[in-house]
Batch of 2 targets.
Target 1
Amino acid sequence: DAGVIQSPRHEVTEMGQEVTLRCKPISGHDYLFWYRQTMMRGLELLIYFNNNVPIDDSGMPEDRFSAKMPNASFSTLKIQPSEPRDSAVYFCASSPIGGTEAFFGQGTRLTVV
Amino acid sequence: GENVEQHPSTLSVQEGDSAVIKCTYSDSASNYFPWYKQELGKRPQLIIDIRSNVGEKKDQRIAVTLNKTAKHFSLHITETQPEDSAVYFCAASWVGQFYFGTGTSLTVIP
């Protein structure tokens, strides 16, 4: 397996634009996590899914953020409209079952100007 | 949700010395405690983990201890080397939730 795959690796967008980040988890993994990493706040859990169902989205900062997992092999994190303070590295991770290692993707570095 | 606190935020040690990073958690239901290492510009990667039914685990120069009663766990790196320089994250997990500490930037001085 190629591991968790995220796209794009880098995204630069203008304030107010819609941004969509994509993630392909490791095949067979039941859990998928979205994290945001900044220097100030470290790794923040935004939302996680179990078997494609969102379980806890309490970490999603605002209604501008939304996440979907239409099937077991694909998830998106959307920001609409984007703001400069959304600039961060966004990681997707997956794990096979609860309470086991989470495998991270390479991350998407988002810059909103 | 779970609240994981990690200290110190930065740590500098001389090569060959030991490094200790400490974490506390709030949710007594948490039963899985991994440690991740993140090198600059890279993804976090698991280096060692421990479950709540174990008090200590060791893998070569790295060891982790867990005190479930006090809700704290620690990472110990012995005989540090320059390649140990990175950011280290602790995490606490139960079922699906997976919460990280704020990270410790470790610098090993040659």
Note: The mean pLDDT of chain A is 94.
Target 2
Amino acid sequence: EAGVVQSPRYKIIEKKQPVAFWCNPISGHNTLYWYRQNLGQGPELLIRYENEEAVDDSQLPKDRFSAERLKGVDSTLKIQPAELGDSAVYLCASSLEGLAGREQFFGPGTRLTVL
Amino acid sequence: DQQVKQNSPSLSVQEGRISILNCDYTNSMFDYFLWYKKYPAEGPTFLISISSIKDKNEDGRFTVFLNKSAKHLSLHIVPSQPGDSAVYFCAASRTTSGTYKYIFGTGTRLKVLA
């Protein structure tokens, strides 16, 4: 079974440029998460989807971050414009619903460097 | 406000000995806890979990202990192997309507010496 797929794995951009990350969750997983992990920290939730619906985006900086999950499968996270403080690893995770969703499966992440 | 704390950023253990990783939390409403292991350039992978109705869960070489009164959990790895060298994150969740929103600790880097 394929795991969570993310691309690109690495991205280097200059500040004020836009950037987008893509995630393909495990087949059959209705719940999708985007996390940000700063250096020396644990992952922090940015947004959670149940199918196509963003059910928790309370920690997403909406002035510059946006996300979408069309058709309830793949998801894209966008930053526009990027700032120096956005340098981090962006992790996508997916899970089943309900009690079976206690375990989240993570992708390898996208390491973003903003210069 | 760090609700989940891993106060030891690193730990070195000799191969074959026990590794004990600790995690403290502040929110008494947390009712489910996970440990994840992370290798460099990879995403975290699930290791073991425990519900707040239990005080111990064991899976092979890995055992997680939960002390609710102290708001403390620990992961024991016995015996430790060089392949266990990784960063370990604990995560805690308050279950709401069947959904799990995890708060992660800052991680402990374990190095198992051959």
Note: The longest strand of chain A covers residues 88-95.
